[in-house]
Design goal:
It contains 26 helices and 23 strands. The chain is an alpha/beta fold.
Length: 729
């Protein structure tokens, strides 16, 4: 018993939270000693405990220290025996001395033991009372509840937080602390801490399980086997300072004027300086209101530094500077647009600058007139509602063509691929790159896994011709076997790695070329040796047709190859009705000179009778919502390429008067494919991006998994309605 009390005292001397909770007298916690009767009962029980302790035996180190003189007397017995063997008289004297020493030690032990025990118990009792006062006045808010949240006891600091309110359950004061948060697993002593706010203060809350012995009156609380100690750590200042530190971080940004030269050419010479001054004033005034530092790098480029706390403000107002700059008009025929790229939460300021560069590249690659915020791995897009303006200059196409030739000439072979479920634009642009490789005598292969009905007529022309190698078209398995470091990979009509025919092959070569006319997304193919992404182009076939004109002097394109690229332009522009610019017709004229036949191409892409009936059925069952949107479901049963047919139906629905955007849903390969189209005055790309897809302002799409057609329709309606209410489209 003495040993147990000693251990108890040692435990009570600890100041950590577990010791404090374990030393609380359960009788005091329950409040049963508040009246005189209970107080007297408590005192009597303490006396009985003192009496029991007095009659306890000593154990452990304490008993050893008291009995040490007796043990030492016993150790002297061999010395006495040895002395007797040498000198009897001396041995006799020594034995008498040892006997007296032993008797004295035993008498001292039994005489002093009770007095020692009494002083030890008195010290323990006094120390316990002192410790209770310390716990009660502890600055750390601390309390005990049962596993159902019933409040049992709290120290002064906790009562002050609760403002002396009388409550029965802890959840009445702190709603975040409920029964579920107080549940412990069998092998769990502590639960992960959590945060809560009370009276404008932020607290870190920790829970500790306390097992209750039967000796401490647990019979008064039926079906309870543990209590929960609650600790509140006030971290209001820590949170405030942490937030303030984050808000004071510097964010780097880049601002580019998208159409600087074109806008100046559209205004009179005497007004050009005024237009530039107005744009400068708009940009400086807008960002100066957010305590930003603005530095003009070039005539159409700005560098800004702004505190991170203002980034959320810019995001909340959707970067209104985009619309303010477009509103500048002093007679210029073309509205001025800007692109903004911000880098946030980089480990260093240099990394924020790199993030801003990536962000501005994304903004420009998506057509400009938008802001992009790169926050670590996350990317946020704002704006991008206006239609891209076609650039009349071909300088960029010529530069890219020369760079492409230099890269391909250093490689042994070339692998070309488009996107999954390829269409005629993907095939046509791949055929154009194949012709470029043949012009410089480089072996090339086009990767096609699934042959759809939309490309089969054109593909058969190449497969049946003796002028092309048998291995001109290969599958992904064959491509993986022949790819090496001396192989160039050219990706056409797609820039997202997950959408290409063979995503695995991208990691097998260091030299990757990307040619695409879709707006960039956050998961664009990285580390491309050459990237040519122009969202204003009508199709990838148009881009390749321009490249071929500068790739090799006197390059000869065969009529069937010209037909493939012409067909790609024709399909993507819906027979030159959508997204068609001057350069689109120039590319078509170039292909006509190379032997493309319009009638022959149209015959290749006529619908089958089954496709025509399916198209009529889908259009007949189409529905409208919000007055300006049309939605239809394309049947997939018995249709070889339902996704292609769905895109055609979406184009057909645009001919309905009053409809500004159309959506066609197609179930294929356990996925829901959505084709979205508009007349150019409504950005369907932003809608599809909300659903994980992408595309152009007037042509976009996405794929939905693990949903039915009816669920997909409801999801689409909710997203469109929400974006319309928020004026994001």
């Amino acid at each position: 018993m003495i040993e147990d009390n000693k251990n108890k005292i040692k435990t009570e001397n600890k100041t950590d939270k577990n010791t404090v909770s374990n030393n609380i007298d359960i009788r005091n916690i329950t409040g049963k000693n508040t009246d005189g009767k209970n107080v007297e009962k408590s005192k009597n029980k303490k006396k009985r405990n003192r009496k029991n302790l007095m009659h306890s035996r000593l154990h452990g180190h304490t008993a050893f220290y008291f009995k040490l003189p007796m043990y030492f007397a016993i150790l002297l017995l061999p010395v006495v025996i040895w002395t007797y063997s040498n000198d009897v008289q001396a041995g006799f004297v020594l034995s008498i001395a040892v006997t007296f020493y032993l008797i004295f030690s035993i008498g001292f032990f039994y005489y002093s033991r009770n007095r020692y025990l009494q002083e030890l118990v008195d010290f323990a009792m006094d120390y316990t009372q002192v410790q209770k006062k310390l716990i009660k006045g502890l600055e750390l808010p601390y309390g005990l509840v049962d596993k159902n949240g019933k409040f049992l006891w709290g120290n002064t600091a906790l009562n002050e937080i609760c403002e002396g309110s009388s409550f029965k359950n802890i959840s009445e004061v702190f709603p975040e602390i409920n029964k579920e948060s107080l549940e412990f697993k069998e092998d769990e002593k502590e639960k992960p801490f959590s945060y809560m706010t009370y009276n404008s203060r932020t607290y870190r809350v920790e829970f500790n399980r306390i097992n209750v012995d039967e000796d401490f009156g647990s019979e008064n609380r039926e079906n309870e086997d543990y209590l929960v100690a609650i600790y509140l750590f006030d971290e209001t200042e820590i949170k405030r300072l942490t937030k303030e530190n984050i808000e004071q971080k510097m964010v780097a940004g880049l601002i580019y004027i998208d159409n600087y030269d074109d806008a100046l050419e559209s205004v009179e010479d005497v007004r050009r300086s005024l237009l530039i001054a107005l744009i400068d004033r708009k940009i400086n005034k807008y960002f100066s209101a957010y305590d930003a530092v603005i530095k003009k790098l070039e005539k159409d480029k700005y560098f800004i530094v702004i505190k991170q706390k203002y980034v959320s403000v810019l995001q909340s107002n959707k970067f209104s500077i985009l619309d303010e700059v477009k509103a500048v008009n002093i007679g210029n025929e073309m509205a001025v647009t800007i692109s903004i790229g911000l880098g946030v939460n980089g480990e260093e300021y240099a990394q924020n600058c790199e993030y801003s560069r990536v962000a501005i590249d994304l903004a420009l690659g998506r057509g400009g007139d938008q802001a992009v915020v790169k926050d670590g791995e996350k990317i946020y897009f704002y704006g991008g509602k206006s239609k891209q303006v076609e650039k009349n200059t071909r300088v960029k196409a010529r530069v890219k063509a020369h760079a492409l030739r230099e890269l391909l000439e250093t490689k042994d072979k070339v692998l070309i691929m488009g996107h999954k479920i390829g269409d005629i634009d993907s095939l046509g642009s791949a055929i154009g790159i194949y012709r470029a490789t043949q012009a410089i005598n480089k072996p090339a292969h086009i990767i096609i896994n699934e042959v759809t009905s939309s490309i089969r007529p054109m593909l058969d022309l190449f497969l049946e011709s003796d002028e092309y190698d048998e291995d001109m078209f290969i599958k992904s398995e064959e491509a993986m076997e022949i790819v090496d470091n001396a192989t160039a990979i050219v990706v056409v009509d797609v820039s997202r790695p997950s959408y290409v025919e063979c995503p695995e092959i991208l990691s097998k070569s260091k030299d990757i070329v990307v040619l695409d006319h879709h707006r960039r997304s956050s998961d664009t193919i990285e580390n491309a040796s050459l990237s040519y992404i122009e969202p204003y182009a009508s199709s990838a076939s148009e881009m390749v047709a321009e490249i071929l004109q500068y790739f090799y002097d006197g390059i000869k394109i065969r009529p069937v190859e010209a037909d493939a690229m012409y067909g790609g332009i024709m399909i993507d522009t819906n027979n030159f009705a959508n997204k068609t610019g001057v350069r689109t017709f120039e590319a078509a004229a170039f292909l006509r000179k190379c032997g493309a036949d319009v009638t022959r191409v149209r015959k290749l892409f006529r619908d089958s009778f089954d496709d025509y009936k399916a198209k009529a059925k889908a259009i007949g069952s189409a529905e409208t919502f919000n007055d300006i949107y049309a939605m239809a479901v394309c049947p997939s049963e018995g249709i070889e390429s339902p996704t292609v047919l769905g895109a055609q139906i979406a184009n057909e629905l645009l001919n309905i008067r009053g409809i500004r955007a159309t959506f066609v849903l197609t179930e294929h390969n356990n996925k829901i494919y959505v084709s979205a189209r508009s007349m150019g005055d409504l950005n369907v790309q932003l809608i599809m991006e909300r659903l994980g897809g992408g595309g152009h302002l007037d042509t976009a799409g996405t794929q939905l998994e693990n949903v039915s057609i009816s669920e997909a329709k409801n999801i689409l309606k909710e997203v469109v309605t929400k974006m319309q209410d928020e004026k994001e489209i």
